[in-house]
Amino acid sequence: MTAPLRTKEALESLRAIPLFSSVSDEDLEIIASLLIERRFPNNKTIVEEGLPGDYMYVIQEGRVKVTKLSGDGREKILEMMGPGDFFGEMALLDRAPRSASVKALSETVILALARNDFLSVLRRSPDLAMAVIQELTRRLRLIDEQASSLSFQRVEERTKGVLVRLAREEPGVAGAPDRYVTPSLTHQQIADMIGTSRETVTRVIKCLKEQNWLRQEAKKYVVPADVVPS
Asked: What is the count of structural domains for the chain?
């Protein structure tokens, strides 16, 4: 489903998104006038690996997973994203096919910006261009960390690493700023992120609970505050 986004609504949404936090009001109004709101149901594919890309997307509500197929056809989860995160910009910058797929993990509302509009606002707003560069740099560092962990770390260390990262990126819990909780996760999703089997993750999660390193609340996990980088 698609619908033009009213400027007032878009401005309120954009001001709360880190990507646009340093953009001038004038440029923000221009961006807001160009955005299109799209809604996707749970489990719906938003972006498909290998296809051409004409839009970049900013998540307004909901959560998505970014995935890539391995040579043997298995799904590898590269990232999980929530409100304020953006994706799809790489295909607009280099005109190559989509490098990964993105699928909704819940009912999701995203703000779409077409290729020509995206490139135009990047040229107009150095602050926005810098924000995009900083996010791309962060993702490259994450890929390096993931490659290193797959090579050198045990499964338990990789599991801890992904839980800490997701808890750090999840918005803080109201009234408990030092309480770090992951988004809802299945053992299969964790396994897909760290490159192992669901059964192995189940055993590791059980051990971490027995060590009092980890607590579980429904499908979310509470990690120790002293191991989460500030």
From this structure: 2
CA–CA distance, 63 with 48 (Å, rounded to integer): 16
Q: String of b and e for 189-212 (b: at least 16 CB within 10 Å)? A: bbbbbbebeeebbeebbeebeeee
37 plus 127 within the same structural domain: yes
Domain that holds residue 184: 153-227
Spatial separation of the C-alpha atoms in residues 166 and 158, rounded to whole Å: 12
Ramachandran category for residue 40: left, alpha or beta (phi over 0 → left; psi -120 to 50 → alpha)? beta
Looking at the structure, tell me whether residues 39 and 78 fall in a common domain.
yes
Q: Which pTM was predicted?
A: 0.67
User: What single-letter DSSP state applies at residue 174?
Assistant: T
pLDDT, tens digit, 9 for 90 and up, residues 159-212 = 998 999 888 877 555 445 567 899 999 999 999 888 888 999 999 999 999 999
Which residues have a Cβ under 8 Å from the Cβ of 96 and sit 6 or more positions away? 90
Residue at 148 is within a domain: no
Give the integer Cα–Cα distance in Å for 229 and 165: 9
Q: What is the CATH number of the domain that holds 198?
A: 1.10.10.10
Tokens for 146? 């993931």
pLDDT, tens digit (0-9, with 9 covering 90-100), for 16-51: 777 787 788 888 888 888 888 899 999 999 999 988
CATH of the domain at 41: 2.60.120.10
